[in-house]
Specification:
Distance between the termini: 108 Å
Strand order of the largest sheet: 1-2-3-5-4
Oligomer: single chain
Largest sheet: 5 strands, antiparallel
Radius of gyration: 43 Å
Shape: elongated
């Protein structure tokens, strides 16, 4: 498949070069010979000559485009004729210059003097003028004007000539002027005319627009196949841009070359040097592997990567080796002696940068490097690159990655963010149904309805259970990296994945934490372990997660759980029972006072009954 794509790309480049060469050859083949126009010495005749030149260019532009065989045939036929035309034009030019010189030296006739007096006052040409035109390309023409130098007051200036030509639809590309020893002024003008302007009388009025649309369609690039790595939409970046931007290192092409991330580039090169020295793999082998997978790598990015092939391969090599070498040193090297692993602040930022959806490389290229290394210390059937990164994740992203994940088999991992998402995968999926009324009660509302909140013992965050009025939720650690990890996993699910179980989980928790009082209640019951400033910051964090998030009501992971909680809260008996317990039996003294009041009421009732019996 890769070889076929490379062959197709090479074939397209070859055809493009051939078409370009044919176009260049076609542009050098004028359809009209060079035309020499002799004009009268007055201004009106000179303007007529310019109009003739205009018509010449228009005729050139109206010509039909030649096919490739016709172009070659015409070129072979035109070359000998062109030589003869050049020789003939040189002779005509010499004769013309001689005639101009002879006429300029003679005296004007009486008829000419009388005609000059009858002209209206204004600038005009004195003496004969010679104009020649030469086609340069389909839309360009070169004009040569030869005239005798006369009094400036009666001379039509070059600027006036150009002004007239601009009115005719020409665009000036270049102009030059020089004077011969005989007092003859030569003006060379290079003009361009839009093809649509020149051919508007004979062409379809909609052809130009149709051609423009067709060219835009031809330049469309094929869409990438996977698109599993992409830029976060601007609407999400405006809410919390720091959660999606790398801090110290760029991985992949989306942030490649950023000025703030350049200090880490030296470490990438050092890691590549150490990798080659330890594995004894040549640079040529590494480059070959990445080059063969370039098309597949580019298909993993939703945006078009502007890097050329060599720069793209180099970037992937440095970034992939950096990830592999860092994981290798963590798993098998000296931890605290390393310049990166031994710096707590730096490694903290790097482990967060690995969790960004914009800062990823496809997983298959990392596994290819793992297979290429073939280190005897760790390469075995029982060990894999996934286990290398999971061991790193137990330290870097705990408690979201645990020892239990080492025993799981993860298939079709796209990148590191996808692997983190799979670590949250529920142990068993619930039956998904549609929620007609999407209303999840808050933690305080659940408590007021008599629901007891407990911290679950399961390590899987999705093992949430509701039974007999008891809601068990596994403990969730909320800290700074929680914001980064969950935001990037959620945006990845929203734009790429068919199952949004992490988004559904955070939606449920966000509805439970609607206010700082809800957050405080969950913290007090051990459901949330807060490492942030206070409960208000926890509430603000969960509120921000649901902004610009699309919730699928027809396929919600916790649909049955939400329905059960809603039915329990709607029961009046549960609310009365909860009110009695919370208002009258919340403290021992309150319970004793209620019991004493009940006993007193009972004794009063018995006394009334005995008194009534005695009367009877």
């Amino acid at each position: 498949m890769v070889k076929k794509l490379n062959h197709n790309a090479s074939e397209r480049d070859r055809r493009k070069k051939v078409n370009t060469m044919y176009s260049s050859l076609r542009s050098l083949l004028p359809a009209a010979d060079q035309t020499v126009l002799a004009v009268n010495p007055n201004t009106y005749a000179f303007i007529s000559s310019l109009q003739s030149a205009t018509n010449s260019v228009s005729f050139v532009c109206k010509q039909k485009k030649l096919s490739f065989p016709a172009t070659v045939s015409y070129a072979l036929k035109y070359i000998p004729e062109l030589r003869e035309q050049v020789e003939r034009l040189v002779r005509k030019k010499e004769e013309l210059m001689l005639r101009v010189s002879e006429q300029g030296g003679g005296k004007r006739s009486d008829h000419e003097e009388q005609r000059k007096k009858s002209r209206p006052k204004g600038r005009c040409l004195s003496g004969p003028v010679a104009v020649s035109t030469n086609r340069v390309s389909d839309s360009e023409v070169s004009v040569q004007i030869a005239r005798r130098k006369v009094d400036h007051r009666s001379q039509l200036s070059l600027s006036e000539m150009l002004h007239y030509l601009e009115k005719q639809g020409f665009l000036l590309l270049n102009a030059s002027s020089f004077e011969s020893s005989r007092g003859i002024v030569f003006n060379n003008i290079h003009l361009q005319m839009e093809l649509e302007t020149a051919c508007k009388e004979v062409e379809d009025p909609y052809a130009a627009l149709a051609t423009s649309v067709r060219r835009e369609l031809e330049t469309l690039l094929p869409l990438p196949l996977k698109r599993c790595i992409f830029r976060v939409p601007d609407r999400l970046r405006e809410l919390n841009g720091k959660a999606y931007m790398p801090r110290v290192i760029s991985i992949g092409p989306l942030h490649h070359g950023a000025q703030i991330l350049k200090p880490m580039e030296q470490y990438k090169r050092r890691f590549l040097r150490d990798f080659l020295a330890r594995t004894r793999v040549s640079v040529e082998v590494c480059v070959k592997i990445i080059k063969e997978r370039e098309a597949k790598l580019r298909d993993c990015f939703a945006q078009t990567i502007e890097l050329c092939s060599d720069d793209f391969v180099k970037m992937v090599l440095f970034d992939a080796v950096f990830i592999f070498e860092l994981l290798f040193r963590f798993n098998f090297g000296e931890f605290w002696d390393d310049h990166i692993l031994g710096c707590p602040r730096l490694i903290h930022d790097i482990r967060l940068d690995f969790c960004l959806i914009e800062n990823q490389l496809p997983f298959f290229i990392l596994e290819d490097l793992f297979n290429l290394a073939n280190e005897s210390e760790f390469c075995s059937e029982e060990f894999s690159f996934k286990k290398m990164i999971l061991r790193f994740g137990i330290w870097a992203w705990e408690p979201y990655v645990t020892e239990d994940h080492l025993q799981r088999n993860f298939f079709q991992v796209e990148h590191i963010v996808d692997l983190l998402r799979l670590c949250f995968r529920p142990s068993c999926f619930s039956f998904k149904t549609e929620i007609k009324v999407f209303k999840i009660p808050s933690a305080l509302e659940l408590q007021q309805a008599g629901v007891r909140l407990r911290s679950g013992s399961s390590k899987n965050l999705f093992d949430i259970r509701f039974r007999d009025g008891v809601l068990e939720i596994p403990q969730l650690l909320v800290m700074d990296r929680t914001k980064v990890i969950f935001r990037n996993i959620m945006v990845y699910e929203q734009h790429y994945c068919s199952e949004n179980y992490v988004t559904d989980y955070m939606t449920l928790i966000s509805f439970l934490v609607k206010s700082p009082m809800d957050a405080e209640l969950l913290i007090r019951n051990g459901i949330i372990e807060n490492c942030l400033k206070d409960s208000e910051e926890v509430s603000t964090f969960f509120k921000g997660l649901l902004e610009e998030v699309q919730i699928n009501r027809k396929s919600f992971e916790f649909a049955s759980l939400v329905e059960d909680m809603g039915a329990y809260c709607r029961s009046p008996w549960h609310r009365w029972n909860a009110t009695l317990k919370q208002d009258y039996f919340s403290t021992p003294w309150g319970s004793l006072s209620i019991i004493a009041a009940a006993v007193l009421l009972l004794l009063t009732f018995m006394q009334t009954v005995f008194a009534f019996i005695q009367v009877i």
